[in-house]
């Protein structure tokens, strides 16, 4: 496929911060890759190099943040030659690609949800997408519908289900006055806790617990955007440990 114009659109939701959403490449050095990196959306594009390899055509654009929130996000990529409009959740970013070529020449397959192992170092270090996609449209072709009706030939569908599995985790929302109190285990000499959190507030108490037998307490809080752990031990000389990250 050698195209001057491309329109690619889809919706996705995921709780993973890394994953290839779609990928295509050609023998002339052309490639297009849309992926999540550190919960941000990254579009890598190259419209080809000349025979001397002196034209640097690689272009990379990053947009969005916190896209691993398991909410639906919409993407539209509109390309006309070197002019690109990248729209994420109605926020459009316009840019021009590097190099001097206008056509995207993809003579291998396009893959959604991952990329085939090509032997290149870049391919085996990238994770496959894990989550849900819908309304995949590539240059007027409804890929989701064609895949569901098995009208894509040739195609390789690996462990794909046409339903969206919801995560088993149950989120809890806290306002300025709410808290959750759970019973401790006085007979245990090990304290262990883990949780995920997301907040816009730079300050707040995340966890507090007294140790049994008046041995002290542990406190985890956010202070000016940093997470701090404070451990107070009442029976030793150096009775306070502070860890900040």
TrEMBL record:
Name of the molecule in the record: CNTP2 protein
Which SUPFAM superfamilies does the entry mention?
Concanavalin A-like lectins/glucanases
Q: Which Gene3D superfamilies match?
A: 2.60.120.200
> Which InterPro entries does this entry report, sorted A to Z?
ConA-like_dom_sf, Laminin_G, Neurexin-related_CASP
Which CDD domains does the record associate with it?
LamG
Give the species this sequence originates from.
Nesospiza acunhae
State the superkingdom: Eukaryota
Residue stretches making up the Laminin G domain? 1-164
């Amino acid at each position: 496929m050698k195209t001057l114009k491309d329109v690619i659109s889809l919706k996705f939701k995921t709780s993973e911060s890394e994953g290839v959403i779609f990928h295509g490449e050609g023998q002339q050095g052309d490639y297009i890759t849309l992926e999540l990196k550190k919960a941000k959306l990254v579009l890598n594009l190259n419209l080809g190099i000349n025979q001397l390899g002196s034209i640097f055509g690689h272009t990379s654009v990053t947009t969005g943040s916190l896209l691993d929130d398991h909410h639906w996000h919409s993407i539209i990529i509109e390309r006309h030659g070197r002019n690109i409009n990248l729209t994420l959740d109605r926020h459009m970013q316009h840019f021009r690609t590097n190099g001097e070529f206008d056509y995207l020449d993809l003579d291998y397959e396009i893959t959604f949800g991952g990329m085939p192992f090509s032997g290149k170092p870049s391919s085996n270090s990238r994770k496959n997408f894990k989550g849900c996609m819908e309304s995949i449209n590539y240059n007027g072709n409804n890929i989701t519908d064609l895949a569901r009706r098995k009208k894509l030939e040739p195609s390789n569908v690996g462990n794909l289900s046409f339903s969206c599995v919801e995560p088993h985790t149950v989120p809890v929302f806290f306002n300025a006055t709410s808290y959750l109190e759970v019973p401790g285990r006085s007979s245990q000499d090990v304290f262990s806790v883990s949780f995920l959190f997301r907040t816009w507030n730079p300050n707040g108490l995340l966890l507090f617990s007294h140790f049994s037998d008046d041995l002290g307490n542990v406190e985890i809080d956010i202070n000016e955007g940093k997470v701090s752990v404070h451990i107070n031990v009442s029976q030793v000389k150096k009775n306070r440990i502070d860890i900040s990250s």
